TrEMBL record:
Pfam families: Iso_dh. This is 3-isopropylmalate dehydrogenase. It is an enzyme of class 1 (oxidoreductase). GO terms for molecular function: 3-isopropylmalate dehydrogenase activity; magnesium ion binding; NAD binding. SMART domains: Iso_dh (SM01329). Its cofactor is Mn(2+); Mg(2+).
Length: 349
């Protein structure tokens, strides 16, 4: 059969630096010729040079690949050269929406030996190992809304959260199916005490799907209380299902309590296989450390395990997972460069 094609978008800031290490580990795991890679030069530089963010022809080419690897896109918050959101909306979100990545999967696991801001007393209670199933194609990310009388004292600015019964049902179902392969517990995170319309829909669908999975226990937390639980009782979570924006916020805190944003992997999955799925670290382009060779590539490397798993190479994925486990356990507080981390993990797979 035919060699799978993987599109690679390094992007901005530390994106290309961490993606290089991801590819290094991928090669060490499956060999240099298992996949054929197509590199796309997209991001801030391309836009500044040509005015293009994601040309239609590239979008069309990407439709035909087997998976996409993305570093990160976006300028430093406050940058004057690049309008905020131009690359994020025009490239990253464009791909998530165009390829119907409705499952944004973000695993969080506190590896033994990893430094965490959590207290010892909390860590000693037991393993922390949960996944966030973040809805990826709806909510406040749809771009519905607008601003009137912009720049005047009468300005009104709206962003509308779009939630469809079909969109909520399919992601909630994915969360329950995932829980069946894990510790069999799903927590819905929302804010239905205030967001009665969207929250009501999520709640009703959650209850209906839960009834189909009697083996899976379920509960509900408001998103604000979730912040408390992530810090004070993270062991309570197995699978969290939530909307697009809550999921964005929850997963940065989840990363912070499980060893930092440098370790947090993610997969933007279209479970139907109708479109290619996309694998990227949870973090962004980190302009504050870009170009210094000090970014932690572990999140991107773990995202390569999610990619292999998605392509049906479970055993290869497990080799990367074990290599990452071993590396993070051994690293302690030593400061290594981006490529040293990649070399060390590649040597272990
Ligand atoms: P960020 O994740 O880029 O950085 C937040 C902090 O985490 C910074 O201090 C950074 O140095 C640190 N950090 C991030 N990744 C790291 C790594 N691998 N190793 C060590 N430290 C790391 O978030 P931000 O500063 O809010 O955003 C910067 C830009 O990235 C913005 O333009 C934003 O829109 C964009 N962004 C893109 C993506 C993406 O493409 N998927 C995701 C998040 C943010
Ligand atoms: C993420 C990022 C993106 C998001 C931004 C850059 C659009 O923060 O992948 O977590 O909000 O989804
Ligand atoms: Mn985010």
């Amino acid at each position: 059969d035919k060699t799978p094609t993987i599109a690679v978008i390094g992007g901005d800031g530390i994106g290309p630096e961490v993606v290089a290490e991801g590819l290094k580990v991928l090669d060490a795991t499956v060999g240099g010729s298992a996949f054929s890679y197509v590199h796309y030069d997209l991001g801030a530089e391309r836009w500044q040079r040509t005015g293009e963010v994601l040309p239609e022809s590239v979008l069309e080419e990407l439709t035909g690949v087997d998976a996409i690897i993305l570093g990160a896109v976006g300028a430093a918050p406050g940058s004057k050269a690049i309008p905020s959101g131009l690359l994020e909306r025009g490239l990253l979100l464009k791909l998530r929406f165009a390829f119907d990545h409705y499952v944004n999967l973000r695993p969080s696991k506190l590896y033994p030996g990893v430094v965490t801001p959590l207290s010892d007393a909390i860590v000693e209670r037991g393993p922390i190992d949960f996944v966030v199933v973040r809805e990826g194609t709806e909510g406040l990310y749809c771009g519905v809304g607008g601003s009137m009388q912009t720049g005047t004292p009468f300005e009104v600015a709206n962003e509308v959260s779009v939630n469809t019964a079909r969109g909520v049902e399919r992601v909630v179902r994915d969360a329950f199916e995932r829980a069946m392969r894990r510790r069999k517990k799903v927590t819905l995170v929302h804010k239905h005490n205030v967001l009665v319309n969207a929250g009501g829909l999520w709640n009703r669908i959650f209850q209906a799907v839960a009834a189909e999975f009697p083996e899976v226990s379920n509960d509900y937390l408001h998103v604000d209380a979730t912040m408390i639980m992530l810090v004070q009782d993270p062991q309570r979570f197995d699978v969290i299902v939530t909307d697009n924006l809550f999921g964005d916020i929850v997963t940065d805190l989840a990363a912070a309590v499980t060893g930092g944003i440098g370790l947090a992997a993610s997969a933007n999955i279209n479970p139907t296989g109708a479109f290619p799925s996309m694998f990227e670290p949870v973090h962004g382009s980190a302009p504050d450390i870009a170009g210094q060779g000090i970014a932690d590539p572990t999140a991107t490397i773990s995202s390569m395990a999610l990619l292999l798993d998605h392509l049906g190479r479970r055993e290869d994925a497990a080799r990367i997972e074990s290599a990452v486990d071993a590396d993070v356990a051994a690293r302690g507080s030593d400061r290594r460069t981006t490529s040293q981390v990649g070399d060390a993990i590649a040597a272990r797979v």
